[in-house]
Model the fold of this input.
Amino acid sequence: MNPFTLIMIMVINMNKLTSSRYVFIERSKDYVYSDGDRVRLRKDIRSFLKELTDYNISLRKLSEREVSYTDRNKILNIALDLINNDAIAHSLVMTKKLPMSDISENTGYPVEFIKVNQNLIVAYMLLFGIGDHSFLARQLSIGTKLDRSKTPLRRNQGIKLKDYGVTSVVLTPFGEFLYLDPSLRSSNTGDFITGSKPIVKPKRAMIFATLVAALIFLFIFFAYTFYQPVRSFTVMGKVEASFSFNRYGRMVEAQGLNSDGRSVLADVVYSNKTIDSTLARFLAEALDQNLLTQNSELTLIVVEGYFDENEFKGEDTSHQIQRNNLRIKVNQGDGNGFILSPIK
Done:
């Protein structure tokens, strides 16, 4: 390759790289919308967001990645050039992907630059290349290289595109997709809003909210199952009472069935006790009140569910039976049963 040819190739590539005709500039006036403008803007936003989804572009990712003012100007001009390139535009429509090498060859920008910024390139192509979004596109403040003296100052302002909890995604007049926490409590899609950068990124906030919701659900589920009786038995004899237990083997309800039974239960907290400690406490209180005497005999009838024999042979119940020489006949309610009595 002779030197003249090499110089010409370098000049052509430099022309490609410096052909950024358009730039984002400072706004000359505030946005004032009529009711009809608001309706049109919201319609454009819905259409634009649908197009992003169709091209597998995440609005969240667009908003999370900060692109410099200089790079946004480059990307703007790349997108505007590609819109008018029938072959590349057709390839994008058919494959939903950008032909990186072809774009690099046509624009002179490295493939890596195209790859890193491909989502924003496609977003700009969709915004400026489809008539359904024309009103939204016209809200961006764009001028020529002659307007560089009007380089915009970064402000936390933009057109609201979507809410993510208390945080909104906005499109600024300077082509940025930003997360903002709106300064006003109430705002609608399409409103030009002012806000501040979110303290917690929406993705993390959503994860946190999901975890909180899951914990609340688990708490409610546990509370419901904890107080839901699934097994019960009734003690019959001189002192009568019924006891209900949850799926975790904890007592959730006790009721005296005669005056002596009510007297025993009156001043004693039985809730959340195990089967063993519930029965032992009931026997001890009845004996203390002289409503039961040593050598007494009681009948225990299972009303609901199934109780294993070992559940009545815990240390506390066994101690009361052994100490006071008590005898308890247990009827499982299915024709089977056993007797709790002192060990000789």
Residues 202-226 form the longest helix (25 residues). The chain has two domains: 3-208, 227-340. The mean pLDDT is 84.
